[in-house]
C-alpha cells in the first residue's frame, strides 16, 4: 500500500491539518508521500519533509496551483494519485472542493470526513450532522478520502527527513480564474487547530461585544469562534462559524458564551476535551454537554473571567 | 439562459434523528421528509436569477423514489418551470448521482447548474464537484454570491480563511452555502399552479447509468453521548476548576 497525502498550506507555511492527515494515513498503513501543490511553495515542501513518517515529498510548483483552484488541482491529483492505493486530504474547504473532482476523474467513490480508520478499506464517519456514526467499506481500487483533522492526533512536525522531488506536471484546465479574496487577518491561532477556543452566540447581541471575548482569548492564547446564529445575525464573519456547516473543532478547552447549543453547533464542538458554558438561561441545551456550566449574564461574567484569568495566568 | 437545479429529498431538518436498533441505518419510517435545506437555497438562487432576467428557464431534477416528486413540486411552486424525476428505489451514492445528473445535463444543456453544497443526511459534500469534473465544467462551491456576466459567472465562496471569488466560464456548476440567500415560502396559488407544471419521469436505466454503490455501510451507530458536568457558582470557582481540576489553563 502507498498513500498520497495532499498538503494543506498557503504557499508559505504548512497547515497543521496536514500533520493530522498524515497521522490518519499512518493509521491506514504503508508508505506515506505528501504532495505539495502551489506556487512558490518551496518552504512548505521543506516543512512537509520534516514531518514524522513521511516517505517522500512531491512538489508541483506552478502558477496554475497558486490559488488552489479545484479544476487544476483535481486534474493534477488524479494524475499523480493514480499510482497510489489511497489519496487523503484534510476535510477543509480546499479538500472538500477538489477531492470529489479527483474521485470523479478516477471513477471511484469518495469517503468524506472520516474520524477513524478501521482497516485499509473501512472507515468511520459522521452522518446526519453527527447524530449518527457510520462505518463504511470501500470496494474501489483507489480510496479517495477526506479526513476530519481534529479526529487524529498530529504526527510530529519535526524529526523526519524525507526526500523532496519536483514534479513537472502542469495542469491548467482553463475553466476558472482567481478573482479576489478577503481573508481574515489575525494574530490569534487558527480556529481549526487552536488548543483553546472562546465562542460567542446570539447572546453577544452585536459584533462589538465580541471584543470582550477577544480579550479573554488573547489572555489564553485562544482562537475566537461563533455560533451560526451569531454569524447569520451579522455579528462576525462566516469563517468564525463553529458547527456542522462551519468549522469542526476539538480543542482542549471550549468556552461557549451566550450560545444556546443548537444541535448543529454541538456537532462542531462536542469532541472538545473540556467544555465550559456561560449562559443566563439555565435550560439552554449547551449545559447538557458542558463540563462546567455557569448560569450568569455574560456581560457580567466575561469581564470577571478576564480579571480572574489575569490573577492566575 | 437555462438553469438546472438538483434537489434531494431528505429527512426534515427539525426531526430528531434516531439510529435503528439493529444498527443498519437511521429510522426513516413515518418520519417527516423535506427538501434538503441547501437545495432550497439553490432553487431560490435560480428563481432570483430568473426574476433578474438572467435565467430564462429553470429545470429542477431530483433522483429518488416516487415520493421525491413532492420535492420537485415544491421547487415548481417556488418558481421552477418544469421537473425531471429520475426514479429509483435504490440507494444512489454521490458518484452515481453525479453520473445521472451528467446524463441530464447532456440532454438539457443548461448554462448553469446549481446544487446544495451537501445533503443533511449523508453529509458527503461531493455531488456538485463530481458533476463538474465529469462534465468538464468549472465549479464555484460553497457560494455566498453568484454574479452572472455574459458567458462568465463570478462566484464568491465561503472558505476557511474568509471569502474567495473565482471567475468561471459558463456552463458551470455552483453549490450553495447558507448565506447565499434566504429562501422564500411557496404561496398557496403557486402551489396550486405547480401541480399543472410539466414533470417528466425517467430512470437510471433510461439514462444508461449503472448506479451500483461502491461504498457499503457496515453499521450505523448513535454517537457516544457526553455527560453533563457540574454547575459552578461563580467565575472564581470556574477559573479554579479549570486550573486545578481540569488543568486546561
Automatic annotation (TrEMBL), chain B:
Keywords: Electron transport, Transport. It comes from the Bacteria. Pfam families: ETF. The keyword Endoplasmic reticulum does not apply. The lineage of its organism: Bacteria, Pseudomonadati, Pseudomonadota, Gammaproteobacteria, Pseudomonadales. Gene3D superfamilies: HUPs. Belongs to the ETF beta-subunit/FixA family. Residues 23-211 form the Electron transfer flavoprotein alpha/beta-subunit N-terminal domain. This is Electron transfer flavoprotein subunit beta. The keyword Electron transport applies. SMART domains: ETF. SUPFAM superfamilies: Adenine nucleotide alpha hydrolases-like (SSF52402). InterPro entries: ETF_a/b_N, ETF_b, ETF_beta_N, Rossmann-like_a/b/a_fold.
